[in-house]
Amino acid sequence: MSESTVRPPFDPELAVFLTAVQARGPMPLTPEALPRMRALEVPEAVLDAHLHELGYHRRSVTVPGHLGDPIDLAVIRRTDSTGPVPAVYSIHGGGMMFGHHLGNLDSFDDWLLRDHDVVLVSVDYRLAPEHPDPYPVEDAYAGLVWLAEHAVELGVDPTRIVVAGQSAGGGLAAGVTLLARDRQGPAVAAQVLVSPMLDDRDDTVSGRQFDGVGVADRQMMHVAWDAYLGERRGTDAVDPSAAPARATDLSGLPPTYLDCGSAEVFRDETVAYASALWAAGVDAELHVWPGAFHGSTSMVPDAVLSRAAVAALAGWTARLLAR
Q1: What are phi and psi of 160, to 5 degrees?
Q2: Cα-based distances in Å from 240 to 19, 29, 244, 245
Q3: What angle do CA 46, 52, 54 make, to 5 degrees?
């Protein structure tokens, strides 16, 4: 960011966290760092104990991914669930390069798991740079197809499957929903896109504002898109399923919840995608949280702004599932 660049301020409560992060020094996204960044931070036994407290149990299934190669899905269901229930298909974040399909599952507690009888399915898609586009989005799509085809045995209502993702997972969720529409695949009832990574072209004001500032910044996005798309990044050879901001036809997409911070790199592409959805006649709800940085809701969950963001998503979800 140049000396003359101005940007929205960070929320004062959230800025305390950013100051502590910056005091630790830079954390470059390098090949050497990827194994640590891909590891599950919480032991699976601890994760399962928490789910058990909420009345859920987890099992893992191996299903065909892109080109038929095996991928894993985590299937999380209430122990006392009765009858077909909605499903939320979760796609984790991590710049297409890191993250874990069992990571941050506690972020579903307050807007989904505590108040609703649902099946939560999380996909372990393969990661770039070892598996660049189209592996991540095609793996994620294959998992959605498996979920829809096995809805009855999972106790899922196949007409009430919601696709959800945050950051890179939000971009993949948007891409998967586009593929489902274009291939006449599973009927996606709604999509949740939280701070989604949608546009590889690096041509937004927020990208320039948050260059070297915040948690996820412009430089990190360059590394992530390069790992995912290689030399195709920024060219006309990129499919909308890989970078959904490139889609020129958003008609026929399901109701969509979009959420971002005013002080994050993905702000403008999220707002632009919401506007494009409205232009196509799609039911979309957009929240831009003043002073929020990328991932602040999960990194600083007790902040006033984080609680407001979770409450807004919980309200939208309750209205959706009550239809």
Answers
A1: -130, 55
A2: 36, 25, 4, 7
A3: 115
Give CA separation, 35 vs 2, 30, 41, 176, 191, in Å: 33, 10, 12, 26, 30
Sign, Cα dihedral of 182, 183, 186, 191:
negative
Q: Quick one: tokens of 279?
A: 């232009």
The letter for the amino acid at 95 is G
pLDDT confidence of residue 295: 95
CA gap 203, 212 in Å, rounded: 16
Q: How far is CA 215 from CA 1, 18, 19, 31, 169, in A?
A: 14, 7, 11, 19, 17
Q: In this predicted model, what pLDDT tens digit does every residue of 32-77 receive, in sequence order?
A: 889 999 999 999 999 999 999 999 999 999 999 999 999 999 999 9
271 near 288, Cβ under 8 Å? yes
State whether residue 31 is helix, strand or coil: helix
Q: Long-range contacts of range 141-145, CB-CB < 8 Å, 24 or more positions apart?
A: 141/175, 141/176, 141/179, 141/180, 141/185, 142/63, 142/64, 142/65, 142/66, 142/71, 143/63, 143/65, 143/71, 143/73, 143/89, 144/89, 144/176, 144/180, 144/185, 144/186, 144/188, 145/185, 145/186
Structure tokens at 127: 């990661």
Q: What are the residues facing 140 on neighbouring strands?
A: none
The tokens describing 194, both together, are 């939280």
Query: Does the pLDDT of residue 2 top 60, yes or no?
Result: no
* Pairing verdict, β 284-289 and 119-124: unpaired
291's tokens:
């002073």
